[in-house]
């Protein structure tokens, strides 16, 4: 702390207990840990200086964006330093000729989206948290969202990075070129590394031309299977679909309770709904896409199909899907399991989730980016006592994740491993694979100061 005070401005670091307490959790809300100090770097030089000092004294450093992560990725190490990026939030350059934006890691993603839009460009990655979450957090968790169905996850857009290694060395990875077949891709290795390999200080992202016209379809089904089977039909069509989201009835009910209304009235026999976003370049093309959509949807019996072009109705339809995270949080303590399997295995996955829940006596709310096979399974605590809940957090979650891996899935689609999923890594990786990850970690961070306790078991 003394060193930081000597080299940084007085308001750039703090060990005030109230401030430390306010940074002791992330959105996961499960793990709490008080850092010894928080520091707010304002430049790459600050980051380098802080890391050099901490590495020498073997003090751990946890980088943090907005703390909106859902896997306890940025919960500080007890006694370590928490490095918060809210003061490195500038958009440094928008290169309109090449469609590249260069930005500091603390830039809030919605701000980034709005600013590039003013220059005629589009950044498509859109988690529901993007009004608060920062691009450094997105890169480090390889975040995605509903539009990942068409546009992919964050890593698809990361062209180049500036990063600082644990010993303070500043490196530059990747390039601003469209193609690059030059050596190992350190850029892609750092994407999704959850602050365990290096601290990212500058990010160059590829941009796209914005979509011209969009329509939203809301489709209701009488069974969970029908909704999920419809996704298989949609995926094999050539319709320009940007997003396919899915929610089971119980999840929609929880949103209705939170919002005080359904948005769009729920049919009594509805078991689940699909949200489908269609894009096109002009009105005629959009109409053609919507006809084609009707044909494809006719392959699976549905209760109702609502198509909306008008912005206000589209927003009303999407709101139910967008606020589910907040609604569940208000409803009950819960543990989100970020399952993802090949799309053809989703029906089996849902059956098994419900069967495990019945057997182990817990209830789940399921919804998510089902177009990509990604279903968020919210395991609810409801009225469980501490002992029962502790058992579900270990045995219940393990039973779910074992099944995910058996169905060719992985432990997390988009939230990452963090502290939350770290104990389950051996379900997916064998000893040789974990040992290789450890060697990579050691090559970047020999003293193990960067975000310790995360990712690698
Ligand atoms: C309501 C809600 C909805 C959500 N929906 C989605 C969704 O649809 N899709 C999705 O993918 N996620 C979703 N999330 C999770 C969250 O948005 C992502 O995990 C996001 O990437 C977190 O960004 P952040 O700025 O809060 O990062 P943090 O949570 O602060 O940090 C995330 C990780 O990045 C590391 N990190 C941060 N900055 C740096 C840096 N400069 N250098 C190195 N490491 C760094 C941290 O150490 C940590 O490991 C949702 C969260 C909420 C609360």
Present as ligands are: flavin-adenine dinucleotide
Q: How is the largest sheet built, in terms of strand order?
A: 13-10-12-11-15-16-14
Radius of gyration, in Å, reads 22 Å
Largest sheet, in brief, is: 7 strands, antiparallel
Number of helices: 16
CATH topology of the largest domain: Uridine Diphospho-n-acetylenolpyruvylglucosamine Reductase, domain 3
Give the helix proportion (percent range): 25-40%
CATH class of the largest domain: Alpha Beta
Structural class: alpha+beta
Total domain count: 4
So, CATH architecture of the largest domain?
2-Layer Sandwich
Distance between the termini: 30 Å
Low-confidence stretches: none
Give the integer mean of the pLDDT values.
96
Tell me the overall shape. globular
Describe this structure in words.
The chain is of the alpha+beta class and 457 residues long. It folds into 4 domains: 2-84, Uridine Diphospho-n-acetylenolpyruvylglucosamine Reductase, domain 2, CATH 3.30.43.10; 91-206, Uridine Diphospho-n-acetylenolpyruvylglucosamine Reductase, domain 3, CATH 3.30.465.10; 213-324, Alpha-Beta Plaits; 332-415, Alpha-Beta Plaits (2-Layer Sandwich). 36% of the residues lie in helices and 20% in strands. It has 16 helices and 16 strands. The strands form 3 sheets. It has a 7-stranded antiparallel β-sheet with strand order 13-10-12-11-15-16-14, with helices on both faces. It is globular. The two termini are 30 Å apart. Bound molecules: flavin-adenine dinucleotide.
List the helices and strands and how they pair.
Elements: H1 2-7, E1 13-14, H2 17-22, E2 37-39, H3 44-57, E3 61-64, E4 81-84, E5 91-95, E6 100-103, H4 109-118, H5 135-141, H6 148-151, E7 158-164, E8 170-174, H7 186-190, E9 199-206, E10 213-221, H8 224-235, E11 241-248, H9 249-259, E12 272-280, H10 283-297, E13 304-308, H11 311-322, H12 324-331, E14 334-340, H13 346-360, E15 363-368, E16 374-380, H14 386-406, H15 425-428, H16 431-444
Parallel strand pairs: 2-4, 3-4
Antiparallel strand pairs: 1-2, 5-6, 6-9, 7-8, 7-9, 10-12, 10-13, 11-12, 11-15, 14-16, 15-16
The protein binds flavin-adenine dinucleotide (FAD).
């Amino acid at each position: 702390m003394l060193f930081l005070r000597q080299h940084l401005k007085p308001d750039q670091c703090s060990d005030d207990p109230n401030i430390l307490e306010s940074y002791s959790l992330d959105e996961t809300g499960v793990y709490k840990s008080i850092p010894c100090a928080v520091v707010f770097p304002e430049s790459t030089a600050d980051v380098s200086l802080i890391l050099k000092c901490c590495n020498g004294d073997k003090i751990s450093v946890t980088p943090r964006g907005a703390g909106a992560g859902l896997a306890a990725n940025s919960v500080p190490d007890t006694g370590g330093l928490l490095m918060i990026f809210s003061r490195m939030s500038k958009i440094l350059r928008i290169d309109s000729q090449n469609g590249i934006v260069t930005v500091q890691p603390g830039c809030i993603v919605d701000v980034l989206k709005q600013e590039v839009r003013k220059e005629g460009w589009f950044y498509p990655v859109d988690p529901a948290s993007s009004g608060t979450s920062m691009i450094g957090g997105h890169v480090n968790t390889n975040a995605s969202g509903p539009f990942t169905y068409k546009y992919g996850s964050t890593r698809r857009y990361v062209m180049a990075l500036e990063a600082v290694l644990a010993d303070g060395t500043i490196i530059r990875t990747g390039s601003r070129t469209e193609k690059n077949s030059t050596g190992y891709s350190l850029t892609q290795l750092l994407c999704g590394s959850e602050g365990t390999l290096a601290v990212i200080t500058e990010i160059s992202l590829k941009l796209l031309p914005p979509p011209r016209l969009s329509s939203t379809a809301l489709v209701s089904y009488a069974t969970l299977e029908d909704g999920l089977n419809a996704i298989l039909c949609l995926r094999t069509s050539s319709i320009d679909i940007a997003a396919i989201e899915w929610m089971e009835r119980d999840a929609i009910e929880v949103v209705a309770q939170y919002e005080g209304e359904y948005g769009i009235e729920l049919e009594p026999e509805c078991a689940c709904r699909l949200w489908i976003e269609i894009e096109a370049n002009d009105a005629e093309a959009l109409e053609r896409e919507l006809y084609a959509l009707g044909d494809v949807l006719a392959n699976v019996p549905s209760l109702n199909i609502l198509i909306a072009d008008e912005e206000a109705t589209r927003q009303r339809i999407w709101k139910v899907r967008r606020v589910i995270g907040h609604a569940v949080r208000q409803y009950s303590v819960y543990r989100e399991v970020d399952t993802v399997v090949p799309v053809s295995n989703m029906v089996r996955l849902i059956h098994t989730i419900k069967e495990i829940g019945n057997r182990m006596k817990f209830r789940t709310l399921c919804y998510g980016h089902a177009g990509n096979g990604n279903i968020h399974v919210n395991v609810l605590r409801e009225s469980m006592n501490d002992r029962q809940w502790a058992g579900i957090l270990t045995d219940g979650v393990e039973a779910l994740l074992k099944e995910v891996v058996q169905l060719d899935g992985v432990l997390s689609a988009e939230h990452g491993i963090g502290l939350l999923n770290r104990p389950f890594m051996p379900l997916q990786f064998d000893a040789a694979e974990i040992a290789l990850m450890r060697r990579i970690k050691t090559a970047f961070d020999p003293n193990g100061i960067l975000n310790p306790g995360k990712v690698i078991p």
